[in-house]
Each structure stands twice: as structure tokens, then as C-alpha cells.
Amino acid sequence: MKRNLGPVNALYPSLTTLVGAVVDGRANFLAVAHVGIMNHGQPQYLSFGLNKAHHTNQGIIEHREFSVCIPGEDMVVQTDYVGLVSGKNTDKSQVFELFGGELAHAPLIKGCPVCMECRLSQVLDFKTHDVFIGEIAATHAEESVLRADGSIDIARVRPLLFDMASVRYWSLGAEVAPCWSVGKQLKAARQGKA
Length: 194
Ligand SMILES: Cc1cc2nc3c(=O)[nH]c(=O)nc-3n(C[C@H](O)[C@H](O)[C@H](O)COP(=O)(O)O)c2cc1C
Prior knowledge:
alpha+beta; Pnp Oxidase, Chain A; seven-stranded antiparallel β-sheet; three-stranded antiparallel β-sheet; 15% helix; globular; binds flavin mononucleotide
């Protein structure tokens, strides 16, 4: 029997990311574990809500550019750190080694196996949060996490999965089944019945 927990958000685990922007001429990063994906065609858009009190918001709004990097398990300490302290009173520009991409104000993290550069498309003023929607301009991935066909192998990225209920980072488990494929057996069985 299920227990009604009230309006608890149970949509976890979610992917832990590092969002970066340039604020007052300096790169600033924060941990963001609530990123939405919109669109599967081109262009691709990402969305996330940042509390208006955060320092990073200023840089995204000013330059209309930001980065979204995916840290691996080896970066859990730095990831958590930039999610604990604010650029308002702590310089976080030296926490990561950076590399340059196509955009001038989307700082990219060398240690992250995957990094995306984004152009701000829209900002929604939503209660306590700024909801940012950005178009992905370029994606950089380490050769070591790529399959022969150039696609990203999530098992090699070893992302940090965030769970609000346990307030812990988790690792990725094993593959279960091929997507848009394993359900075909039930489709065929149900069509057979019809
Ligand atoms: C795992 C994790 C996930 C987080 N996800 C979000 C998020 O989705 N939205 C948000 O506004 N803050 C989130 N935070 C909090 C910010 O990362 C944190 O307040 C940060 O210190 C703000 O930095 P800034 O003021 O330099 O921008 C998260 C923190 C952690 C540790």
C-alpha cells in the first residue's frame, strides 16, 4: 500500500551539473541539479531555475551566455563546494582549470568530461527563481568518453546523480534495456490481441 506523502517532489535522481558564467569579469560556477531538456531536434535548449539570490544569475543576465558542464565522480568535492559557497563573498574563479570555447562568457571546465556552451534565449521571472532557457551553441567532450561513432558514453562520464531525499550523490547503475525498442515486444503482443 502506498502512503500519501503530500506534495513532495520525488523526481530524483537528477543529473548534477556545474553552471558557469562571467560575473564582474570573473568566472563563477555553482552546482545545479535541476536541469530540464527541451526539444530533441535542433536547436537544443536547456532550462533551469536559479534562486534570485545566487551570484551567477547576474553574469548570465549581463552577458546572455553561460556554460553547463557535467562533472564526473572524481569531481564531487569541488562540485559540492561551489554548491555551498557563493561568488558574492568567495572567489570561485580558481576552483577549476578552464578552457576556451566559442563563446566569450561561457567558462568551460577542463576537468569535466562534457561541457556545453549556451546562449541565453529567455529568462522567466518565477517567484523566488530566475528560470533560464538557453540554446546549446557547442558541446565539448573528452575523447575518452566517446564511442567510436562520436556519441557520449554515459558510463564513461560517471556522472554524479543527485537525490534530494537522501541528500547524497549517487553513481550511475547498469544499463537495463534498449530504449524505443524493448517495448516493441508488448506492442506486438497487444496488436496480436486486437
Ligand atoms: C547538488 C546541488 C544542487 C543544486 N541545485 C541548485 C539548483 O538547481 N538551483 C539553485 O538555484 N541552486 C542550486 N544549488 C545551490 C547553489 O549551487 C548554491 O547556492 C551556490 O552556492 C550558489 O552560488 P553563487 O551564489 O556563486 O551563484 C544546488 C546546490 C547543490 C550542492
